[in-house]
Each structure stands twice: as C-alpha cells, then as structure tokens.
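Structure in, sequence out. Go:
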C-alpha cells in the first residue's frame, strides 16, 4: 500500500534541500511549486496540461469552495479530485487568510471567525473544527491547520496575541483532524506565525512541535513586507522547524523569491503569480519577466523564452501571443499561463538538480546575474 505520508531528503547543499514527499496519490519532488486551483481549477488550464508542466501537486481553497459550490456538494459528487479531474495530491489551505482578506464583515473570537460571504452576503462560521470538516469533505491530501494571518505591520502585541490564538487553534485543528474521516489517509500541516519577530516565531515553532504535524508551513509572510524583510525572517524561521519534515512557505512567490527561499531551507511553495500574471500579459523568462503587450513584440518572431522549450515556446511566436493578448482573445491567457507554469516547474527542477549535484550556490549566483526583475 502507498504510504499515507513520508518525507525523504536525498541531498542538501548548504541549507537548500531536495527530496520527496510520498503519498497515496503520488510522489512530490521537493523543492516543489504548487499551482493554485482556487475554485477547483487552475485558471485557463486543463488538469492534464497542468500535470504536463511537471506539477506534482496543486492547491485548492477552502474558503472559496465552501461558498461555491459547497463542500458538502463536492463530497456528494465524489470529492475534489474526481470533481475537477485531478488524480494527484491536492493541498487545501484552511480558509483563514481569505476570511481575513475578502470578507467585508467579520468577527474574530476564540471560537473562530464569523463572516459574510463576499459573493452574496450569506453568514458563515469558520472554526478549526469546521475547517477540518470542510477539508475532509473535499478529500484533501494535505490539510492545513486553521490560523489567523495578520499583516506584518501590526503592533507587536497584536501579532503576539494573534500568534498565540493561532497556536490554540492549531491544537484544536490537530484534535479535530485526528477524529475526522480522513485522518488515516491525509496529512496535516501546522502553520508558524509571528510576522517578522524572531522571538514570536520561535515560540510559535515550539508550540507546533509540541503538538506534532506531518509538515510545517511558514505563514504570515508575502503580505506586503517586501523581499528584504521576508528573507531576513527566512534566515531564522525555517531553522526553527523540524528538519525531518517539509517546510512550506505559503503564498510565495516571484522566481527570485523561490530561489532565495530554497537557499534558506524551504521545500514547498504556492502562488497565484504565474497564472494571474499570464492572464495579464506578463511572461516569466530566464532573463526576467516581459510584458508581451509591449509594441516592440508586435513583429517579434522569437519564442517567449528561447531557453524554455515548452509547447508554447516551440509552437507560437511572441508576435502571435502579443496579438492574442492585445485582442483580448481567450487563447492568449491560456498560452501565457501554460508557459508561465512550465517556467516555474523548470525552475524548481533546475534547483533540485543543482542541490543534488552540490552546485546550488553557483546556480543561484548565475540565476540572479541573468534574471532582470524589471520588465524589458
């Protein structure tokens, strides 16, 4: 029988790590990037095409799916995997971040968060227990503990109180998960909080280790603090988490964010950036991002990225994709998204290879030398 959850490190290079997560629905090579399928779809992509990019796992969103079409409905229809046609692992976030960021009217108590839907104003309650129930109904392979994610610029007492409540919610999440219907087939990750504060991050990690989880996420970053502050926090935050478990940096990020985070010991990532940017005309390349809307691409017969080799880069020119995006054609968003997801998976594969061969520092130096952050 395939394992419920196993994490094996195969090589390290400095703090950078490569290995595998083995689960019943498949193996996930790490460092791993998870495309975001918020509403049971990676936008502009069919599941088979997402898999063809090299993705081993995708992310689904508890908040959006509980509101539409509803977790109970998805359960009646056979679970999220069958519903959307993705047969490999799915990680679902807990819904906490979306409640905080999307709900206009919300009230946070020790019990959980009561809020009104951003879709129709209907009233809902999301607690650690309800989040675990919803993620079980969805059939999630990796379940995230329910937490609160305040902005990093909040006063320290606010950050501290939030972190401490999130740790109490983490224990309740653990207890609810362990008595749920998927405890014997799914994994549960805890989420470290504490914003940019090293002492609070340490206390959060200690609390999570005492509870015990299959993996550990680093939450509360990529919420407006900037790359320098994020990296400064990642200089210590991953080291506080168990070395024999995967470390997941939530909501990150740009290609250079990924390289810097892997350099600091992170194993897993998710972000809407490759798909959202693709729909808006930004293509990621090994030389940096480009805005395909720019007029200079109108007669450019080259590929989006000469180093890429994905089906988009071997099949269509910059000029054609420029035309599609400028004309608002659906195919433009599809091709740009497909290319960006291929690029992200190529980047992860290149980092895994560099770690395995002991050349990650050289890889990171070369990447930064060639990657121009400002669109060209």
């Amino acid at each position: 029988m395939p394992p419920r959850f196993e994490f094996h490190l195969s090589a390290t290079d400095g703090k950078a790590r490569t290995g595998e997560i083995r689960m019943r629905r498949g193996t996930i090579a790490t460092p791993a990037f998870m495309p975001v399928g918020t509403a049971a779809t990676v936008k502009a992509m069919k599941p088979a095409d997402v898999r063809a990019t090299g993705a081993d796992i995708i992310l689904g969103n508890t908040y959006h799916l509980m509101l539409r079409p509803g977790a109970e409905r998805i359960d009646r229809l056979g679970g999220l995997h069958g519903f959307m046609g993705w047969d490999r692992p799915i990680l679902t976030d807990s819904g906490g971040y979306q409640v905080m960021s999307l709900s206009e009217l919300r009230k946070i108590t020790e019990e959980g968060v009561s809020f009104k839907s951003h879709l129709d104003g209907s009233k809902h309650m999301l607690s650690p227990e309800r989040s675990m129930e919803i993620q079980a109904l969805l059939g999630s392979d990796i379940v995230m503990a329910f937490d609160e994610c305040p902005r990093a610029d909040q006063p320290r007492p606010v950050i501290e109180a939030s972190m401490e409540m999130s740790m109490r919610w983490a224990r309740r999440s653990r207890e609810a998960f362990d008595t749920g219907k998927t405890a014997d087939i799914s994994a549960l990750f805890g989420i470290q909080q504490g914003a940019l504060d090293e002492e609070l991050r340490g206390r959060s990690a200690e609390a999570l280790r005492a509870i015990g989880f299959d993996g550990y996420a680093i939450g509360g970053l990529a919420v407006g603090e900037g790359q320098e502050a994020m990296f400064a926090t990642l200089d210590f935050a991953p080291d506080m988490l168990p070395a024999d478990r995967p470390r997941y940096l939530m909501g990150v990020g740009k290609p250079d964010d990924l390289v810097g985070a892997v350099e600091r010991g992170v194993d897993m990532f998710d972000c809407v950036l490759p798909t959202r940017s693709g729909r808006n005309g930004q293509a990621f390349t090994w030389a940096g991002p480009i805005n395909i809307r720019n007029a200079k691409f109108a007669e450019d017969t080259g590929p989006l990225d000469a180093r890429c080799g994905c089906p988009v880069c071997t099949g269509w020119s910059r000029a054609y994709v420029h035309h599609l995006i400028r004309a608002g054609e659906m195919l433009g968003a599809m091709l740009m998204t497909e290319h960006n997801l291929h690029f992200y998976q190529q980047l992860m594969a290149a980092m895994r290879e560099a770690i395995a061969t002991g050349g990650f520092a050289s890889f990171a130096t070369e990447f930064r030398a060639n990657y121009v952050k400002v669109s060209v």
